[in-house]
Write a structure and sequence with these properties.
Layout lengths: L2 E5 L3 H13 L5 E4 L10 E5 L1 H12 L6 E5 L4 E6 L2
Antiparallel strand pairs: 1-3, 1-4, 2-3, 4-5
Length: 83
């Protein structure tokens, strides 16, 4: 099953991100960042396509994050983010 990861630069940002997910009542799980995603914190927030629109609204309102990825069986696709 495909899913999405919101990746953070550091643990502090990830914890703030999780708090924002909770406040907005967006279903999620704390998930280890895959080793293929370099230069990121060791934890990410995992969610499904059903929550994608809400997460994008959160990002557009100024949420701090490093990148948004779609994870499939065969690939990791960067959707948006910073270098």
């Amino acid at each position: 099953m495909d899913f999405y990861l919101l990746v953070y630069k550091n643990t502090s940002d990830a914890l703030k991100g999780e708090e924002e997910f909770k406040q907005r009542k967006i279903a999620h799980a704390v998930y280890p960042t895959p080793p293929q995603i370099l230069g990121s914190c060791g934890i990410s927030l995992r969610f499904t396509e059903m929550e994608l629109e809400d997460v994008e609204k959160m990002i557009d309102s100024g949420a701090v994050y490093k990148a948004l990825y779609k994870i499939t069986k065969i690939s990791i696709i960067k959707i948006k983010g910073f270098e």
